[in-house]
Each structure stands twice: as C-alpha cells, then as structure tokens.
Amino acid sequence: DTGVSQNPRHKITKRGQNVTFRCDPISEHNRLYWYRQTLGQGPEFLTYFQNEAQLEKSRLLSDRFSAERPKGSFSTLEIQRTEQGDSAMYLCASTTGRSYEQYFGPGTRLTVT
Amino acid sequence: QQPVQSPQAVILREGEDAVINCSSSKALYSVHWYRQKHGEAPVFLMILLKGGEQKGHEKISASFNEKKQQSSLYLTASQLSYSGTYFCGTSKGFGNEKLTFGTGTRLTIIP
Description:
The complex is a heterodimer. Chain A is an all-beta fold. Helices cover 0% and strands 50% of the residues of chain A. Chain A has no helices and eleven strands. In chain A, strands 2, 4, 5, 6, 9, 10 and 11 form a seven-stranded mixed beta sheet that branches. A four-stranded antiparallel beta sheet of chain A has the order 1-3-8-7, with no helix packed on it. In chain A, strand 4 (31-37) and strand 5 (44-50) form a beta hairpin. The radius of gyration of chain A is 13 Å and the shape is globular. Chain A starts with a strand and ends with a strand. Chain B is mainly β. In chain B, strand 9 (84-91) and strand 10 form a beta hairpin. The model of chain B has no long low-confidence stretch (mean pLDDT 89).
C-alpha cells in the first residue's frame, strides 16, 4: 500500500496522560500536514512540514502539542497532559512540492476519558 | 475565517443534480474540493486556481469566481456513490500550503 498511513487508528487515554501518534507519508512526498477534525466539522489545520522543517504552526495549537519530522520522512504528533477537549480525529496528509492535491491518511481517533 | 458552505445538507434521489457553494471572506488563490465518507479520510476531487479554467469530470465539475471569492461544485445525474460530506478547502497559495476547510455539506443520495 503506497498511501498515507497513520498509527494507531484508535487511542483511548485518560485525562492527563501523554499520547503520541505517527504518520508515514507517501514516499518522496516532502510536505506533510497535520489536521484535527471533530464530529461534523471540517479538518482544522494544526501544522505542516517541508522535509524536516516545521514551516507553520496554528495558533490554536497550545504548547501541549508538539510535532516532529526528524528525517523528513515519518512524523509524530505528541499531546501532553491530554484534556477532554483534545478528543478528535487527527488526520495526516502529504503532498509533493509541485502537486496541489493533499493525500490524507485514515486518521487516528483520540478519545480522552 | 472558515469558508461558509451552502446548503448544510441536501437529500437527492439518484439521477438528480446538486450544487454546493463555498464562500470566503478572504481573497483566494485556489479552492480545493474534497469528499469524505463516514469514518473515512477526505478524498481529493479537484482544484481550481485563480485565473484558471473551470475544472471537471463528466459528472462532477466546479467553478471559481475570484471576484466574489466563491466556488461552486456541480454534481449531475447523481449516483449513490456520491453520498458523503463535501468540503471546500481554500489556500492562499498553490495549495501545497495549509488548507482552510469549509463548514461542509452533507449529501445523501437515495435510490
């Protein structure tokens, strides 16, 4: 399968715990995006990378959120001290620098209890 | 600001046509259309660029009015597989920058 993959697909955690999600983009896609989607809403931009450089981070993203893309390939999104309001689907997308289409992964559904 | 889509939801019989509108308060360079089925990731449909031509396939097409900062998605002779939630995504650049997604339009096609 050459699509965008995300792991885990589902995560249930207790409030206050830390969680980490992983995204593997399509090979050779140098741009990688993280979005968050809550029920009934469109995806909301969180951050994006070009290769290993984080180019932009949403102001909505508190300091509890951090993302990395250490070697310009896979990326991780960590949420520290989770809150119930963090419950959402976290989507990853990737694209080449010359393409307009963002290819989305299946997402990681986070439930904070 | 998030683009506003209309209608919020629509129910059609198979074979009927639909128009979904996307309106932004900001100047746009590109508009992207995605369809998302329940529990699945958004799937890219098409992109319209400022100054570009109307895009489309045989039964799904779209237009982009730069002056009005609006885009419309046209679905003709709808099929059951068209059901899902449609989102427009706007970008200040070519589209390899971040997308700001609209409020969504839920389309239900019934036999």
